[in-house]
Amino acid sequence: MKLEQQYRIIDFKDMGDERGNLVVIEGEQMDIPFDIKRVFYIYGSDDTVVRGQHANRETEFLMVNVGGSNKVRLNNGSETAVVELNRPGMGLYLSPMVWKEMYDFSPDSVLLVLCSRHYDGKEYIRDFEEYLREIRGKGF
Question: Mean pLDDT, the chain, as a whole number?
Fold first, then answer.
């Protein structure tokens, strides 16, 4: 499968007015195609830190940098892409089995991550060589 079919950029509608901005993200809608089971956020990282460095067998993700910016390096075993998250109205949707690395965090970065599944450490692949063996064995 082509990497471009495994992720997409989502621009959320800003529903703000003269009082300020308001961005709404709803699960199982046009914004994201899954029911939200888990939410976490990453902050306090800097431009020397690399987070993630794993793939998930079943979990879908939506990443939104609600403050500051960071980059996300994506890899599907044959292609790579880099996405910069630098607007709170911009989301990065990831399907399962995409290797992800988040890095180059600005000092004010707050990376919000919405997930389709509750945490299960057994569905994480944390070794890149193991990831490559799995995706090649499944014909990805």
Answer: 92
